[in-house]
Every structure is written in C-alpha cells, then in structure tokens.
Amino acid sequence: MILQLVVREYVATGRPVGSKTLVENARLGVSSATIRNEMAALEELGFLEHLHTSGGRIPTDQGYRYFVAHLMGDCELPSSEQLTILHQFRQVELQLEQWIELAAATLAQAAGNVSLVSAPIPQSPRLRHIELVSLQPRLGLVILVTTDGAVHQVMAHWPEDADQETLSPLAHTLASSLRGFTADEVSARASGASGLARAALDQIATALRGMMTSGAPVRHSGLEHVLSQPEFSDAAGAQELLALLGGGTFLRAMLPRLEEGPGVQVFIGHENPADELRRLGVVVSTYGVDGEVVGVLGVVGPTRMAYDRSISSVRYMARLMSDLMAELRG
Amino acid sequence: MILQLVVREYVATGRPVGSKTLVENARLGVSSATIRNEMAALEELGFLEHLHTSGGRIPTDQGYRYFVAHLMGDCELPSSEQLTILHQFRQVELQLEQWIELAAATLAQAAGNVSLVSAPIPQSPRLRHIELVSLQPRLGLVILVTTDGAVHQVMAHWPEDADQETLSPLAHTLASSLRGFTADEVSARASGASGLARAALDQIATALRGMMTSGAPVRHSGLEHVLSQPEFSDAAGAQELLALLGGGTFLRAMLPRLEEGPGVQVFIGHENPADELRRLGVVVSTYGVDGEVVGVLGVVGPTRMAYDRSISSVRYMARLMSDLMAELRG
DNA sequence: TGCTAGCACTCTCCGGTCGAGAGTGCTAAA
DNA sequence: TTTAGCACTCTCGACCGGAGAGTGCTAGCA
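^ Those are the sequences you sent over. The predicted structure of the assembly is below.
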C-alpha cells in the first residue's frame, strides 16, 4: 500500500516523496516513523530509491513495474470518456489518413502523454480495385484500393502518350484481372506485358510492396503534455524527444518486441529495447484484424507517468481502431 | 553598415552586442568609441534598443525591418543548395500528401526554423474523375480526382445494398457526365437524382466543398531548430509555440494578409496580425498556379532569425511547389 | 568638426555563504 | 510493533561581492 501511495504521489507531483508528506496527504493510522521503516524496507527490496541522503524517495523502474503488475487495480477507461471518444470517431466519416490523426490526438488527450499511431500496415495487401487517371500526355496517376480498404496513389510516367480514353479501359481490364492479387503476383504478370500495361503493372507492384514495408507514416500528437513535465522542460530533453519521434528510431526499436504478442505492452525505463528510451516509459499495443492488417499505437512519457491512465487509453484505442479496420475490410 | 553588423552578430550569437565585440569581430577601421556614437544615433532613430544600461544593444523590430528592406543584399539560395533540394524532389515520385511533408522537412532544414506547408487548396475544384468502390454491402468509398491532380477519398453509406458490379457502371456514367463540374454544379445535379446516385452525388459535392475550405492539412517540421534557441528553451515558450502550430491559429491569422498579394511576405514581431505572434518572425508565401490552386508555405522563428536565409528558402520552395502544381494540373 | 582615449559608472553573471525546511536513520520508550 | 525524539544531511533560495562588459561623457588631437 505504501508503494502504491508513493508511486501515485510521485506521479502527481514529480517531487520525491517523504514519510511526512505521505502521512499528511493520506489518512494512514500510523506515524511518519512507521512509514520510514516501511520505506526503508521497500528500498531494501529495490522498489524505491534515494536520490540524496535527504529529500524523499522515488520509485525505481522495478517499483513502477510492481505497481503496474499488482497495485494498479482494474484499468478500464471510464465509460464516459469511452463514449466521448467513440462519439468523436462516429461523428466524422473520414479517410483513413485522418483517422490516424484523430486517433493520435485523442489518445494523447486521454493518456496525457505523447501518442504515436502508425497507419495500418497490411501484411499481404491484395488488390480490390485499380484506377488510372491521365494528368498529362505521358504522366498519370495510378490509384489502387486494397482489400483492407486502404487507398494508395502513385504517379507514373507512361512510355507512350496516353489520354483518359486509353487509360480507362486498361484500368478496367486490369482491375478485373488482378483482383485479389498480391505484389508478387502482379510482378509476375508484369513480366509478360509490355508498353502501357507493363508500366502500370510495375507501378502497381511497387506501390503494393511499398505498403507492406515500413513506409507507413507514424503520426504523433500531444507533445505539449510531455514538454510541460519538469523532466523535459529543458531544451536538451525536448530535443532528444523530438529526435526520437522524428526519426524512425522509436518504431524500429519497438517493432521486434511487438511481434512477440498481442495486447498492451509496457516498458519502463531500462526495460526499453533502445538506449534512447532508457529514461522513458512506453505503453504500446498493436491493432488490426487477426494478423492480416497490423498497425501500432502507443504513448511515450517520462518513466514517472500515470501508467493506469495510459494503459487503459491505449487498450481502448487499440480496440477501437481494430473495430474500424474490421469494418473497412468488410 | 553598423546596423547590418549588429543584426548579423545578434542573429548569430543571440546575445546583445556591444561596441567592443563589434569592433573586434569585424575589421572596422575605427575605435569602439566611434561605434558607440553611431549606435547611440541608431538608437535615437529607433533601430536599436537597450535592454539594460549596460549589456549591449539589440535590434528593434524596426531595425530588422530596415535590415530586410535595405541591408540584406540579394537573397537567392546558393545554387548548390537549390540543386540538393531539387534532387530530393525529383528522386521521389510520390503522392501529393508526401510532397507536402517533404517540402516541410526540406524548408525547415534550409531555413533553420520551423516550417509550415499547407496542402494546396483548389480555388474552385473541378472534377476530372470519379470512382466508387464497394467495401461492405452498404458502405463504400468515393474517390475523386480533380483537374489539379488532387485525389480525395471519402466513405459513404449507401441507402441500399450495392456491390462493385452495381457501383462501377454508376461511377462510369457519373465520371463522364460530371467532368469539369464544380461543387455547386454537382449539388444541382444531386437534387434531381435519387437512390444510390443521389447518395454518391451528395458525397461528391460535400467532398469538393471540403477541399475548398480550410480543411487543408498543414504540416510543420523542424521544431528542433527553434527549440534549441534560447528564446524557446524554457517550457513556457515551447508550449506556446506548440499551441500555435497545433491549433489553426497561425493560418487563420495569416490568411487575410496573404490574399493581399503574391510573393514572399515578412512579418517581424509586432507587425504580426495576431498577438500570439508578437515575439516571432514570420516569412510566408503563397504558391500555386495563377489563382487556380493556392497553398501557403512559410517559416516561423524568433524575431531574431536569419531573415535572408529564411526568405531565400521560402521563395525557392514556393517556386518549386508552384512548378509541381503546374505539372500536376497538366 | 570628427575621431579617439580615458574614466567613472552601471548592470549582469557567477561563485560562495548561510539559514530555513524537509527528510533520514537511530535509539529508547510505550 | 509502533512511536517520539534527536542529531545529522542535503537542497533550495536569498544574499553578497567581485569580475567582466558596456555605456555616456569629456577632453584632447588632426
């Protein structure tokens, strides 16, 4: 119980917590001296640590871990909040790209931390529909829709002039003959074609491949929450965080761990796979439809973060996004 | 010349510049006392100011303004840098959305500040192509391509079940009958239709309207440059900046000024239309094809910023994006 | 008349000092 | 097993004083 109180107090205030403040804030039936003894024992066990001889104690990574595992209680987002979020999503019939951004914004808000949401990466995207649009005589747009409802567009240079009247029938025959094809199957078909069809098939194949690999954009949101924390208020901390989010470091480090299993995963401080994350807490989850289309979402904050709130938010948002994906997939 | 030196020195170091340091850094043939007299005169004229009795002088907004107007010299991006940027753009044949992001990243890099790039907002988008894709029996995707090469997708609920075999012919007839139509013209057509066609037409009209209004996403990049400046190193400054970029405040404040004319515009400190921008310098430009499709791009930084570099970067990037738009429009 | 050297003055910045406050461990008593 | 008391430690903010930098002013010089 004392560990729980220390964690909650420290998360709330950000200042090391001492025996006296603890006994004042919580209605414990005991005196500060007792608390001191208990705290010393918790320190012995490795759950708390002492930054300076005086000045209160703070939880260790292990302390947070114990808190998350045993002391946190149920962590469901309050249903009122669930409803608010659901409402936001239902209100707008958007394109997928905007859903990602909405999800990032909502998650950041709910968790009170920086959120990261990747677009869903189809495991093996199959073609549902193809469209070719002429922009200039030798320049066109290849638009393809996959079975999981994702729309992708790429520009293509034609080897010969082609207006809309040429492209439309081609698109039509391609659409019907390639339905359900994967990137490799399209490539195979391309090697047997020539001219305009060859160019279109090549573009389609590379576009499909591009969707599978790491090219999926990752949106983040809610930097303001974390920058207001004392841990990141100096320029150096902020810079580090920005670099982390900007570069793909974060996702690259996280992905191998995520493939280990579904559900919400929590990494606290030194548990993180990458050195840059050592001073952070990370709560992530995959979302998607049983292995067919998979995305990642999560939140990042200081190790001193409200894990219960973050975990419930991430869990709920992952469920929501999975439902949306299932709906899109039809 | 002394104003120019003071501006350059202060922009470079961020510390108020005194007569002695100036005479040491630049090879002037005069003593510090002379500089002092000159500086006093410049202060009299309102170009410099005195934060404290001692501790050097800094340019006023008016001082920066004079610098931009008369002292800056030609401001072309060095052609080596131009080539690098051009290369980056040519290297990738992407979708428009990604161009926006690339432009934001490149601009931030070149200008050394936070960059903002809006997607092009078509003034009166006209339809070039329409596609309908079935996702579920009563749920579909409306994909439309406008004459300026922008692709837009929205989800639509059908009033009745509709599979791909029903939708494809409908899309085909709609595409040929609506080519070149604006939102209003589509709306007019919708009122005479019913059932599936009516639903599709309504969606198309709202989507077209959505493209015209402020819905265009604005990407920003390069926060790290500005956060490393002493002006924003504290949490409060960073927060303020984030709020500015996150909310639409920035664009809303800027848009009326932008419509006044083409070309690069510079707002220094108090010249800015919004209070939140009073401590910032803003360099913006529109881009696009002669009034038909218009976007905004620019950079934001502390008033103490390298205006020459920012201006040349913004100017070059606006030209580049305009060229790209022209190409897309065909 | 314009430039320069010198000088007294002011203000910031930085390091050291000091006391208040908070927290700890330990010991002895209930 | 819990509590009260006590001596000790460490941080934090306020205060102070000297070094450094910059200024305005005045007098001298070409």
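Chain B is about 50% helix and 20% strand. The first helix of chain B runs from residue 2 to 13.

Shout if you want it in another format.
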